[in-house]
Amino acid sequence: MAAITKILKKALSEYYFFLSNPRDMRVLLITNMIYAFVLPVVDIFVSAYIMRFTNNDFTLVAYYQLAIYTGIPLTFFINGFLLKKIKIANLYSFGMLLSGISMLFMMTLDHLNFAGVVFSGLIMGASFGFFWANRDFLALDTTNDKNRNYYYGLETFFFTITSIIIPLIVGWFIISSKTLGWFGEHRAYQVITLCVFILTIISSIVIHREKFKNPKQKKFLHFHFDRLWHKMLFLAGLKGLAQGYLVTAPAILIMYLIGDEGSLGTIQAISGIVTAIVLYLLGRFSKPEHRIYIFAVGLLIFVAGTMANAIMFSATGAMVFMLAMVLFRPLHDIAYFPIQMRVIDVLSRKEKRNEFAYIFNHEFGLFVGRVFGLVMFLLLTHYVSEVFALKYSLLIIALLQLISIPVAKMVIKHTSKEEFKSNGQDVRLRDVDDKLVVEPLVQ
């Protein structure tokens, strides 16, 4: 009884700590927590749906992802213009609703062909574009460098929990609908799509409970940036390289090596709970100087998982990879996003530009990496073999990711103390009252 009381008191203290943060940050977190129940369905089960109803044609899954990754930067571009006249909360909620529309469109197709899958992918890409473009700006605007570890730790905690629970429930639902004779697999996917739609509506309502500010400056399209931003774009390219695989590879590997959607949920549930707790603690108690260590550990876990998959290439190897991915993705994100936001903080003040200009440009770094990764996967599939592509492409991607560790270390060092000339005067950036300000440099 005493142990339960202690746990409840600790949980209550964490709740009060959450309430101690700014209201706009809390509303954004709650919105993202609700939408977190949608993302695992989009990430995994849409790909599984394509494979199930196209005789395991995983090249079609790759084309679907390529369509998504094409739609995202185009929507970022459109979003930049729309922000001049439309409230950011409206664009944000529209992006969430579009994900349900994309799934609905795919479920209504009589036959999954190339044109239908690609068009559905473009709609989903537009959904992600509106969601991530506005989410990134709101996260930047409602947080500071000191509380970003907590923000991304809590957000990633929920994303990790839902990436465990939702695949488990949805996988069970799809299999049970057939084995227990409720209805066919296609109808099961339609029911899941309806649930996704309801969740996107709820999250859209929540985001409108706060008045968020649009970017102040209107111009967001630039072609020349500081050298520091070039390093950040290099990190974005490597991150995109991994993203292209981590959306498609889990569903493809499981369906190819194991064979049903129920396994998707079961495998991801094995180590996820522990990971989620670790993530929350890292976000709660880690400091900005700890980000590089979290970043490096996540990448090393990723390499180990892909190596196991390449060596074993079996159901066991796929399980080891999935466990490694459950650890890698959140560890990488909890370090990467605060690093990115800090760079934008510094350069937006140094170059006196709209913060969205960097968010928009960063997406093209991700896009180049995603396209390169997917094209490499398709080339290996067509010109070598499907087995070779599934075994070794992930390992190649993981080893390339290790390059980002020294680059991230340089970026962090550079943003900790930035000095430059402004209007002929030596100035520096310094954190004052949780805000980054430009002040004269006293010799």
Structural class: mainly alpha
CATH architecture: Up-down Bundle
Task: Tell me the helix content.
Answer: over 70%
- Helix-strand pattern: HHHHHHHHHHHHHHHEEE
What would the CATH topology be? Growth Hormone, Chain: A
Pfam family, one: MFS_1
InterPro entries: MFS, MFS_trans_sf, Sugar_transport-like
Keywords: Membrane, Transmembrane, Transmembrane helix
Transmembrane segments: 27-50, 62-82, 89-108, 114-133, 154-175, 187-207, 228-258, 264-283, 292-312, 318-337, 358-380, 392-412
What does this structure look like?
- This protein is mainly alpha-helical.
- The protein has a single domain, classed as Growth Hormone, Chain: A, CATH 1.20.1250.20.
- Strands 1-2-3 form a three-stranded antiparallel sheet, with helices on one face.
- Helix 9 crosses helix 13 and helix 9 packs antiparallel against helix 15.
- The chain is globular.
- It starts with a helix and ends with a strand.
- The model has no long low-confidence stretch (mean pLDDT 81).
Concise synopsis of the structure shown:
This protein has 15 helices and 3 strands. The protein has helices spanning 2-19, 23-35, 39-52, 58-82, 88-107, 114-142, 148-179, 185-207, 227-257, 261-285, 291-312, 315-350, 355-383, 386-401, 404-416; strands spanning 419-422, 425-432, 435-440. Helix 12 (315-350) runs parallel beside helix 15.
